Amino acid sequence: MSHKITLKELAAELNLSISTVSKALKNSYEINEKTIARVQALAKKRNYRPNRMALSLKSNKTMTIGVIIPNILNYFFSKVLLGIEEEANSNGYHIIICLSNNQYQKEADSLQLLSDGSVDGFILSIARETQVMQRNNHFKKATEDGYPIVMFDRVSEKIECDKIVVDDYKAAYNATKFLLKQDRKKIALISTINDLNIGKLRINGYKKALEGDPTYKNKELIFKINNKTEYDSVITSLFDNHHDVDGIFATDNVSAITALKIANNKGFNIPKDISVIGFSDDKISRLSVPSLTIVSQNALEIGKNAARMLIDRLQNNSPSEFKTKVIQTDLVVREST
Amino acid sequence: MSHKITLKELAAELNLSISTVSKALKNSYEINEKTIARVQALAKKRNYRPNRMALSLKSNKTMTIGVIIPNILNYFFSKVLLGIEEEANSNGYHIIICLSNNQYQKEADSLQLLSDGSVDGFILSIARETQVMQRNNHFKKATEDGYPIVMFDRVSEKIECDKIVVDDYKAAYNATKFLLKQDRKKIALISTINDLNIGKLRINGYKKALEGDPTYKNKELIFKINNKTEYDSVITSLFDNHHDVDGIFATDNVSAITALKIANNKGFNIPKDISVIGFSDDKISRLSVPSLTIVSQNALEIGKNAARMLIDRLQNNSPSEFKTKVIQTDLVVREST
DNA sequence: GTGAAAGCGCTAACAC
DNA sequence: GTGTTAGCGCTTTCAC
């Protein structure tokens, strides 16, 4: 456990002052070339690295971003994190990660804990509970304390900050349109996130597409799943009450695949009898049988853009207006449609 | 963007010295109760929080753990991260995350970058490339610099540090045994990780189980998949060359589910004709049709234990011996066996 | 060309 | 009971 070498120690060993050593390491024009060489040689030999905490204290910059995400087991969030990490790293930033587990308290605590000079700013996606309870005082506090926030995917209109979103409305609209073009006559929507803003947008996009189609006769057909134990029962009831359903748009892939499974058990042929579309380009959608057509949110891009947006703000001293950037979604067509 | 309040400012506003304020905030017995009250009232009003960088510089502790994982899109690693985060947070530690993407260089860079006083120690699982290339100089350097490391899952015997592992040998042995007890006569193993130590252990466990069974007649049957494009072709060749295969143990779930799919296409009934076992308790194993029997590594426990182990070492000044803790695996029996 | 000194925000030993 | 001082490791201004 050899302790870390400091400027002071280098200076002592070289019979120089600390400031000279400091300058020499930066190739300052003030310092004699020979001295520079001596200093740098020793620094290299001793594997000197400037202490990050000291630098932070001095510069009042941590070069660290706080990332708060609702659920790391969710492929979408993992992939966004991957994008954030890439972009942050290549700009010299570290990432401190906190998981809200979709709980308001954990989210607020994380924000509060990191608002002590641990980070320069935040990238986050709002916890489900926070959005349901419509809390945002914790976000306000952080921004008032001078910590810029970039929200992605699950954002709040109540908070003034940079945002990266997906056009959930349009994505749902397009997915439903796709089913309509296949001449589907009874299209159901399954939602596990109707309590989230993005869930509402997806529902609206679905409704709008149906309404806009003059040849579509059926009413909207929305099935809400409120907790993990309900998937099977709700989706079974869908099929039991609507034998003639021939299109399903799900706002998440677990529902979509459960629908696939139940439809199959009931003897439906997919995609011949029923077309199914899910949401999120994750592994389960690629491995299901049949593989699932999905709306891809381009999670990697969301992450990269979020990081870039925050870093831009951190590095631009002139406070610019808050922006909301919309990332394109893609319909990835596979075997289920 | 109101800048953060400091002790100095509190002191000025209260006409007290900085040290008095500092002590008052800590309820020091030296300080007059009234003063304590005044100070704490103002601190609360101004929402004072001690600057973390200053504390770190002073105490030479960052209360931060560096976590380096190979692939965040892998459910196992995400879940371990969840465990680490929980345990670390409840002990007042933050987590800085770096993703090696299974590359040696990225792993070494991350280690190097964080070894500048950014963290107190590391929790990591070795990148595939690092293990294949048998590099470990970067780990040595970090430990020599005084940064304790806890390795989990993919560990190296060449490095002296704390470790959390799964008994991959035994897990594979037991899984194979399970298939033998079902009276399976031709059991194949599919491996995507034969270049990793854990992959070799799993292969050995499989072999040992077969050898130890006096009634088992067939030879070992090992199919190696070396890259993502080969899944279908390798597994198809398995079935084409061995029509009588009736048991499959896969060292990962993508192979297992691909096997499920291909077997199904070829008209095999699962589990009647063929039993399939995967590895890792992820979503795809629960949602596949039929749902997949798997070896669960108890990832959450691995994460929690790793964090606890590192924190123990950080807080125990007396350098104790390095330990390796083995986390129990479970065979989770579902429909595919 | 080199060094002394101040200061980032904080703690703690030591005055008074 | 309160204040002064030194110091954590570093940068930077200013003096020599």
Q: How are the SSEs ordered, and which strands pair?
A:
Two copies of one chain form a homodimer.
Chain A (H helix, E strand, L loop, with lengths): L6 H8 L3 H8 L7 H13 L6 H8 L4 E6 L5 H15 L4 E6 L4 H11 L6 E4 L3 H6 L3 H8 L4 E4 L9 E5 L1 H14 L5 E5 L5 H15 L10 E3 L6 H11 L5 E4 L2 H13 L9 E5 L3 H5 L5 E4 L2 H17 L8 E4 L2 E3 L5
Parallel strand pairs in A: 1-2, 1-3, 3-4, 4-5, 5-11, 6-7, 6-8, 8-9, 9-10
Antiparallel strand pairs in A: 10-12
Helix pairs in contact in A: 1-2, 2-3, 5-14, 9-10, 11-12
Chain A binds a DNA duplex (16 and 16 nucleotides) through helix 2 and helix 4.
Can you describe what's shown?
- The structure is a homodimer of 337-residue chains.
- The first copy, chain A, has 337 residues and is an alpha/beta fold.
- The first copy, chain A, is built from 14 helices and twelve strands.
- Chain A folds into three domains: 44 residues, no CATH class; 138 residues, Response regulator (Rossmann fold), CATH 3.40.50.2300; 129 residues, Rossmann fold (3-Layer(aba) Sandwich), CATH 3.40.50.2300.
- The model of chain A has no long low-confidence stretch (mean pLDDT 95).
- At the A-B interface, helix 4, helix 5, strand 2, helix 12 and helix 13 of A face helix 4, helix 5, strand 2, helix 12 and helix 13 of B.
- The first copy, chain A, binds a DNA duplex (16 and 16 nucleotides) through helix 2 and helix 4.
